[in-house]
Structures are given as structure tokens and as C-alpha cells.
Amino acid sequence: MINQADRAEHLEQRRLDLKFLLAVIVLVIAQFVTLFSQPTRPFTYLWYSLCVAVLLVGYARGRVYGLLSSLVAVFGFGSFNMYQFFIAHDTTQISGVDALWFFLFPLCGFTGGYLGDYVRTLLHRYETVYGSVDELLLADPLTGLTTRKRFFFDLQEELERAKRHFIRRERAGEGSGTWETLTLEQAHINEVVTVLLFEIAHFNEFVTIYGEAQSNKLLTTITETMHDVSRESDRKAKIDRARFALILPETPQKSAAIVRDRLNDCLESFQMEARSSRMRQVSLQMRFGMATAPQQGHTAEDVFGAAERELGFDLG
Questions:
Q1: pTM of the model as a whole
Q2: Which architecture, in CATH terms, is 148-313?
Q3: Mean pLDDT in each 10-residue stretch from start to end of the chain (316 residues)?
Q4: Is the bond into 294 cis (omega within 30 degrees of 0)?
Q5: 3-state helix, strand, coil in the chain (%, to 5)
Q6: C-alpha torsion sign, points 184, 185, 187, 193
Q7: Phi, psi (deg, nearest 5) at residue 210
Q8: CB–CB of 264/286 below 8 Å?
Q9: Domain range list for the chain
Q10: Rounded Cα gap, residues 149 and 151, in angstroms
């Protein structure tokens, strides 16, 4: 049984086919007019070419531009025939077939624009859908935290914001030098960003012993703890299987150390249900690494690298 989404897709395809068919029919009519009027109007192929051009303009730019270009084409066609009759004294009467061009030009403009507008609407709709899928791919399905890819975008955005704060202060005459050369003593609080990385030591062994279900529960518990100990404005990410990151804007290392200690205190033990339906406390070993911009890096990669090196030195 075809579901509702499939029906909608088939309906959209049918509508698109009909619009293409309408454009083809208009061009076929224009070709017949060209063939029938060729014996008496040797330059009629020019009007056919103009008709195709009007249709393409409408397709590329929309119905309004298509109709405007058809207005120009009608004016050109009418002016040419008036010249032939009044100036060149061509006594050949315009036939009914020739008169069809007055209708074909606007019909081509409208048909091309109608088709083009519909195709652009479909493309925009598909881009929106694929954009939504891409956004979903930037979020971890288990925890809902942003992924490593999005983490670097967010970190660079926060670094640029901190730099703009310094530039405004420097332009006001309250600072000197550059943001990249700021020391901890010189920097205002809104000009620093700290990255806090942490991970569960021996996570693979935890999975082996307690299983995937308890491991997932542990990861979601860590996510909840991150939300509890940090501000809403802090960016939170899961950048590896058992590695997490916090982007702490306007936070020097002293304040970030408080967040780190809170995390460590909350995650020292993990309560889980054993096979006997009893709750069991499991001790966890956490490893942390921190880095602050601009003192330890000016780009997202530099700051992350500095925090990662410190994480590597932490033996838990």
C-alpha cells in the first residue's frame, strides 16, 4: 500500500510532467506556425527563435520576466510588420497563421515561467529537506549533543565573537595590540573562550563488562550532567565515542576549573541496575583537558589541539 508520502511524491511528479508537456506543446505549435508561414514569410524562423528565447527567459527568471520578454517580442514582431506594410509597402496581408505569434510569445513566456517557478519550488523544498537531514547528522542520535563537525563550527563562531568584543574595545580606545596577543591580565571576560574536554577512561572495558545498554545509559547520564553543571549558552558536544566537549564563552580557566570539578564530582560514580535488579554503584575514572583562547590558540583547531594535549597528560 502506497503511503501518504509516496502519494505526494507521485502527485508532484505528475504535476511536473504536465508542465513539461505544456511547454513541449507550445513549442510544437510554434514549429507548425513556422512551417506553414515559411513560404510567404522567409524570416519566420527568427520569430520561432525569439519564441524559444522567451520561453527560456521565463524558465530561468520566472513568469514575470517571461511575460516582460514576451511583451518585447510582441512589440518587435508588430513593429516589423508595421514597417513592412507602411514603409516597405509590402502588400502581402498578414495571415491568421502569422497572427498566432501575437499569442505564442506571451504563451511561451508564461509557460516557461510556470515551469521554471515550479522546478525552483521543488528544488528549494528538496534543499530544505536535505538541509534538515544534514542538521540531524550534526547531532548525536543517542545524546542529542552536537557532533565533532558541528563542534568546530561552534567553537570558531565563539572565537570570532570574542575577537569582535576586543575590536570594539580597541576602537573605543580602551585596548591596544591585537586579540591574538592578549594576556590573561589584559583580556576582558567577554574576550576569552575556554574549551573543556573530558572522557571516560577505560570505556571499552566498561562496555565489555556491563554491555551496550548500560554504556548508553552512562552516556546519557553524562549528557544530563553536562546540562546540569553548565550554562544554557555553553556549547555541548560529543566528539568521540566516549569523549565530550564544552565550549565555555566568557570563561577564564579558573571558572572553567570549577565546571570541571563539578563534572568530576557528579561523575565519580555511576548508579546502574545489575542483573539481580539491584542498583549498583560503579566508580568512574574521568580525564580532563582545558585550553583558553586567545592565550593557547587563535583558531578552533589550535585551541582544541591544546586541550587535547592536556587531556593526554591527564592520567585520571
A1: 0.58
A2: 2-Layer Sandwich (3.30)
A3: 60 86 91 79 82 94 92 89 76 70 92 91 74 63 90 94 92 86 89 96 88 90 93 93 95 94 86 62 88 94 96 82
A4: yes
A5: 65, 10, 25
A6: positive
A7: -105, -10
A8: yes
A9: 4-137, 148-313
A10: 5
